[in-house]
Amino acid sequence: MLKTPLFLVSLMLVSELALAEVAASRQNELMHLLRQDCGACHGMTLKGGLGPALLPTQLDGKSTDYLVTTILEGHPNTAMPPWNTMLSPDDALWLANQIKQGIQ
Ligand code: HEC
Predict the structure, then answer these.
(1) Residue of the nearest CA to atom 5 in ligand 1?
(2) Is the pTM of this model over 0.85?
(3) Atom 1 of ligand 1 has which residue's CA nearest to it?
(4) What is the domain partition of the chain in residue ranges?
(5) What is the dihedral of CA 55, 72, 51, 30, to 10 degrees?
(6) Range 39-56 average pLDDT
């Protein structure tokens, strides 16, 4: 009989958790990623650099869907990379909401 590999079980558990909500500890990781990794291009305070500023004023009028898709899939032929191997759709949604409302 085939046994479900352990990593699949944990993957399923992880995606169920991600569906439920973004846990507080994950929020800390995501905020760190936003400042460090996204900040490498968009600036630590998201005021822009190699990539455009990601401040509420710049993002005004851009849909949450557009932001989530941009984060997950990147913009082809630009420096904006896809993050879908590191971020779940819920992670991307959480990040999109953070940049729309502005981080401190
Ligand atoms: C290697 C550099 C680089 C990194 C790292 C990077 N970006 Fe970008 N990003 C860009 C560039 C360049 C653009 C503009 C792409 C274009 O011209 O369409 C962009 C565009 C965007 C946009 C669209 C902005 C708009 O006004 O339309 C969003 C949202 C965004 N990035 C979010 C993120 C987030 C969140 C992260 C981290 C998870 C991230 N980026 C990491 C370079 C980067």
Answers:
(1) 38
(2) no
(3) 79
(4) 23-101
(5) 60
(6) 96
